[in-house]
Amino acid sequence: MSSVVSKIREPLITGHKSYHDITEDLVSPTEKVPGPSWVIAFIVSVSVLAFGLFCIAWTIWHGIGTWNLNRTIGWGWDITNFVWWIGIGHAGTLISAILLLFRQKWRTGVNRAAEAMTIFAVICAALFPGIHVGRAWVVFYFFPYPNTRGPLWPNFDSPLLWDLFAISTYFTVSLLFWYTGLVPDFATVRDRAKGFRKKIYNTLSFGWTGSAKHWQRWESLSLILAGIATPLVLSVHTIVSFDFATSVIPGWHTTIFPPYFVAGAIFSGFAMVLTLMIITRKVLNLQDYITIEHIESMNKVILVTGTIVGVAYLTELFIAWYSQYPYEQFAFFNRALGPYWWSYFGMMFCNVVTPQFFWVKKFRRNVALTFFLSIIVNIGMWFERFVIIATTLARDYLPSSWSFYVPTWVEIGIFLGTMGLFFTFYLIFVRVAPVVAIAEVKSILKSSGDQYLGPNAIHHEHSGHDKVIMDPIHSDEISDEHHGHGDAPSDTPGSPADIGTEQAVKTGKDVKGETKVSNTYVPSSRKEGSEKDDLKKIEGIGPKIEEVLNNSAIMTYIDLVNTDVGRLNAILENAGSNFRQHDPSTWSAQAKLAAEGRWEELKKWQDELDGGKTKK
Amino acid sequence: MEKENTITEYNFTGTSRLVLLIGMGLGVVCMILSFFLDGGVEHHARFWSNFLHNSVFFTGIALMATFFIAVCITAWAGWYTIFKRVWEAFSQFLIVGFILMLIIGIGIYLHWHHLYHWADQTILNPENEEVYDAILHGKSAFLNTTWYVIIGGLIVLVWVFFAYKLRALSLDEDQNGGDANFSHHRSMRWYAAAFLPIAGFSSAAMIWLWIMSVDSHWYSTLFAWYTGASWFVSMIALTILVLVYLKNRGYFANVSAEHFHDLGKFMFAFSIFWTYLWFSQYMLIWYANVGEETTYFKQRIDHYPVLFYGNLIINFIVPFFVLMRNDTKRKYGTLVFVSIVLLLGHWWDFFLMLKPGILHTAHEAAGMTGEHGGFTPGFTIPGLLEIGTMLGFLSLFLFVAFSVLSRSSLVAKNDPFLEESLHHHV
Lengths: 616, 426
What we know:
The complex is a heterodimer of chains A (about 625) and B (about 425). Chain A has about 625 residues and is mainly alpha-helical. Chain A folds into two domains: about 20-450, Formate dehydrogenase/DMSO reductase fold (Up-down Bundle); about 480-485 and about 505-610, no CATH class. Chain A is built from 25 helices and no strands. Residues about 460-530 of chain A have low confidence and may be disordered. Chain B is mainly α. Chain B has one domain. Chain B is about 70% helix and about 0% strand. Chain B contains 14 helices and no strands. Chain B has helices at about 15-35, 45-75, 85-90, 95-110, 135-140, 145-175, 185-210, 225-250, 255-290, 290-305, 305-325, 330-365, 385-405, 420. In chain B, α1 (about 15-35) crosses α2 and α2 (about 45-75) packs antiparallel against α4. The longest helix of chain B is centred in the last third of the chain and has 34 residues, at about 330-365. The interface between A and B is large, with 42 and 48 residues.
């Protein structure tokens, strides 16, 4: 990657993080006892999953007749859900592989979770072909096997078999890719762990030591896997589209299906990544790593792929007319104005109309709207598959066999069950592995951290170069030692320097001077002289805490606004047991009002607060 | 600011002009010859099909240059900045493309040629029972001269506007740019983003009109994207060739192996993407075996096997195996070789898209029915006159591009991404 970064770009890591801060922030969710929100979410997910398993058991016990499929509509919710989940499983490997090849730095904030999501989505998808055959014990018919059905190996002719290969290959490579990325991060977790936990993470990290040789092999493996995964991203949904497009069913047989399915899959995959990441960054306090800039970039991908899908819809519609082939024309007439017209309009509205909001920068950077639209997009993509599958089948060549289909509770239950499965896996994942790739985020800190780039950066004019100089921090030994060699992820977990920092922070005794806790944070006050605000005006901060904060280089309201809650907690924790009970959650919001001079509002709010805490 | 001192003004020398003028002259001579040596095909089909083929091919390259500038601006790409003037120069050929396509459009009105079967009014009239074509009559709301000339012309003018505007903003940035708000880049982003969906929709319509409607009964939803990919690879190949030439003349000293490596990657990736689309279209039509669709490939495999299989070898096998390695994308020898092959290869692909349909139409117009195999000069494979015509159009394209290039600085000195591009490292 280029070491020069244009000033026009925005930082991708905010909060003036040091390498140690990154480790701290990203590993700690795996070390703490889960909070109530996690426990509730987990119980709900597992319950829904249990109901889904019950419905699957019901299907297998009583037979496929418990679904409402009929002679005309042989594929309903089952294959709709299958294609929907497979589509969602596209963003992960796209982010990892294709964005790696395009050197998009923002991928580092979201790639880990997106890859995990890919794997879980593919597992959910793979369930449906397995159970839709009805007789689960003959599911080996999927696989080609010799001779009992003649010498021709007939199922090689079928795109359904190609699908089996495509998806299993994709799953394998995605899993390898995901795990490869996790190895150094597991080692980081291991280095902070004790006892049995340390043993487990040591095994998981394959005894990673962080030597140069390890990194070199790790990097070449990542590149090779990216090279393999890129065509795979295209191939999987291409072959899923072949399931339909190789037929002679009007509305299914159209040549644009392969690339248009791929675009649609990326579209829905990114929408699901957004849904998950917006929740995750909030719950785990990762706003400094999954920034608004990340969300905006993903929204741009949503807009692009949504519009590509729109072009494809209109192309299909136009060519159906242009072909002058009456069955093709009828298929599209039926989609838009037939008995399932609502699903066609749902698809058009959710997939083509709503993403157009993202033309406006303000909307792209609006987290609440993004969250809402990301769910809308996935509803729309579900409709798209339903339109293609059930709507098309409902009106075939013979009007005498036309039919209508609504799912039974069993089919709905199985779909809900896959949701439960997906979220159960995801919730476990955020507990056991760093949800943001530590090593990769560290690799972009020097080029995209907000102390180097953007409005909060410290600019140096140096030897006539009009650019941001790469080391404005007061170069303490730690970062020097780590990053004397360019910006490869050389912050090897387990290196002496890293352990040194950890100890320094843990004991608290070695913390001398005022910058140890936040050793890279250069507050605005230090840049512009010795400005200092009265932090005691913030409810919850007394003279002692003010001193602690000042020692951590938080001097002004602005500094406090720029310090996130996790950081404040860490500062308080390090200051000794007396300080631990304080809850800094409202401090930065209070400081914001103070910094803006809105004392009236602050006063009013403080009256409602109880010692700086929100009343329960 | 610059890594190396480099010449920032391109001097379009008399010698270069002369060479390109000779090339154009050769093209004119070949076109005049093809007007008369048409191998017995009516309506001077050889001349007009060559005219259409090259106009469409080079206009598409200019469109793709505009499109890719817009993509790069929207994606906040930095690496291409030092040579973006080359793409800006390519994009200005759209004005010439507009005139070329207008000539073909006027030709439809004035019956100069018979490239498009749908333009024949007699077959659209149900009263002419012998020749009435219900399918084309059904399509006539789209396949008609108004769409081709008026709406098509307007669409190309919209492309010209965006190509002009993006370049004008870029040139203005040289003079007045460099402010802290990056206002020029903001404005370019606006135009670039607006152009992307416009190009996405309108290019499909133009490809259907200009190219797909040559086989007037046949249809394929993928066709527009397939053709677009073919244009895109040609554009990248021509960019590499022009950059290597200019570098050898001492310009663009800062364009390094790193930039060529990325261009090579694009050429490699989009060659594979082109093949992917080729395969998707072919395989789905072959598998479903619907007569209305398979006729397109059957005609080509039966009567144009050299073109048909050659197309795949040239445009897939060669770039795939040569550009697979890292170092071949960084060396001039291999890169130039593949670029030449691909530029000719995609020109060949357009030949295969257009010529069989045009010949079929010409035969129909001449009252011939049934199978008509055998060798037809200028149709079965590209002859010397076709290659000469192509060189003429290529010279025209380069003449326009170099003239545009010589009128402004080669370095977009106030572009916010220039430093990134200068220090680009793969």
